[in-house]
Amino acid sequence: MACNESNYIKRLKKKKEDALEYIVDQYLGLVKGVSYKILSPLQNDGIIEECMNDVFLSVWNNSDKFSGENDDFKKWICAITKFKALDYYRKEAKKSEVALDDSDYTHKTTVEDEIIEAENKEELIALINTLNDIDRDIFVMKFFLGIKSEEIALKLNLTKASVDNRISRGRKKLKGDYTLMGGSKYEK
């Protein structure tokens, strides 16, 4: 029996490979579009491809968990794609943070200056980690990855005004927390 629009979900649940081929043919554009929209600021096509492959693997492995109608399948695969892409984005953002932490600052003149810089950076990261997940993601995207508020809003399904408000509130919270900590031990 050939796989078609009316039987592809049943065949997928029975782990028939032609059902996965049908899904890839039908939904590749959608999966690629959603993945690209979220991951394009990373400027790494390899990550987008890896994410797309991971989406289809997840669809295959979790097909028994899909319980909707054929019309709901598009929403289901879109949700899987969105969350996979956000996971990849967060993972790459963390790698960027680690790269920032490991970088060598040759412009420092003394060991004391380097120690002060490292402690200030640790304090800043600790403060950012006190923010809730969405605000922390916004801060990482805005200030570590240099992504514009409009793009952040699109990625997180928020309005630009909401992103800007969260940044403003987050800055006030960080400033207040920093003041409560007594500022930097080495602040002049």
TrEMBL record:
Source species, domain of life: Bacteria
GO MF, one example: sigma factor activity
Stated family: Belongs to the sigma-70 factor family. ECF subfamily.
SUPFAM superfamilies in the record: Sigma2 domain of RNA polymerase sigma factors, Sigma3 and sigma4 domains of RNA polymerase sigma factors
Ranges where the RNA polymerase sigma factor 70 region 4 type domain occurs: 122-174
Keyword Transferase: no
Boundaries of every RNA polymerase sigma-70 region domain copy: 24-93
The keyword Transcription regulation appears for this protein: yes
Keywords: DNA-binding, Sigma factor, Transcription, Transcription regulation
GO biological process, one term: DNA-templated transcription initiation
InterPro entries reported in the protein's UniProt record: RNA_pol_sigma-70-like, RNA_pol_sigma-70_dom, RNA_pol_sigma70_r2, RNA_pol_sigma70_r4_t2, RNA_pol_sigma_r2, RNA_pol_sigma_r3/r4-like, WH-like_DNA-bd_sf
Pfam families linked to this entry: Sigma70_r2, Sigma70_r4_2
Listed name of the protein: RNA polymerase sigma-70 factor, ECF subfamily
